[in-house]
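Curious: why this fold?
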Amino acid sequence: MAGAELIGKEEIQEVMEVLETGVLMRYEFHEQRKGIYKVARFEEEMARYMGSRYALGVTSGSAALKVALMALDVGHGDEVLVPAFDFIATYEAVLEAGAIPIMTDIDDTFNMDPKAVEERLSPWTKAVIPVHMCGAAARIEEICDVAGKHNLLVLEDNAQACGGSVGGKKLGTFGDMGILSFDFFKTMTTGEGGMVITNRKDLYDRADWYHDHGHDHNPEVGRALEGRAILGFNYRMNELQGALGLAQLRKLDDLIIAGQRENKAFIKEALAGVPGITFRTLVDPAGDTATFLGFSLPDKERAKTFQKVLKEGGVDTICYGENLWHYAPRWEHLIGRATANSKGYPFTNPLYKGKVDYSVEAVPKAEDLMNRSLFIAIPVKMAPERKDAMAGAIKKAASAI
């Protein structure tokens, strides 16, 4: 549960300061606020932490993806490259923007393969969304190099690796834009909530306008008199989320990620002696958030046996090849083009001239890895007796394969 494990007096204090003002909205009510602007402060502190010029708080990581895509002017007739191993929200956001998600293969990082970017290029490709799945980085520098060579926009989906880095540079800051997610299971949490990250003023402005009905947020005039350049929608983060975010951000490195790294190291050492095991490749181990530990067995049968015996010992693992939410070829509603629109848009949009393939044959590396690999979610807190129980379960499972 990551940051949710550490919700305590610091979060309570931040939230109480909001409740005492009675102002829960991100904007206006200046007199009643008494100087309390939690979302604005959260944005400032997150931008500073990330090393980016701009950060914009929104209602969720999914909303952050859509807001960023709209800011990037991705839409009808466009294709966006997205990895096969991913949470469904990334695909949904592309479709919500009116574009078509194109499934790409992964490599031994379990993230987008830079080679697959060039393999999936078409005349309609406009952007690429590398996703840093399960807490660890994609080969983001290589992906950005390929994208730059082909004039593609890069939107980093860093929903699952907040605080991670490559070469000391925070994930989410390599591309044109990046996003973070703060839902209840993320590295740090505000219950729900997300953030849009960018260094470009023009993209920040478009995101800012879009996430609040087109308001230009001119501080010189009242909210009802503000200007507007584009139509938008409501994806505003509220002050309670901002308050939680401030408290959680202060815990991110020294408590949340540090705790996960310690516990991950213990579990990895316990697994190291399992016959035939290989661990997920980390682009930069020093920048790993340690949210998950991913490993592979030689084949699907041994992976299933290992998982079964671990389960009997009280250790839960995830096989994403059988998970219905994180592996695109398993999404029957995507394969059936079952969008919320009864006419099947944007797949049936006459502006779109390309062709999609969401079959397992299109992603052979993913199909191999997903079916013989397991992931363990790493807790921030782990009692000594829990460590002993896990080590015992791993030893028993190892003898079963």
User: Anything to note?
Assistant: The chain has a mean pLDDT of 97. Residues 2-251 form a domain with the Aspartate Aminotransferase; domain 2 fold (CATH 3.40.640.10).
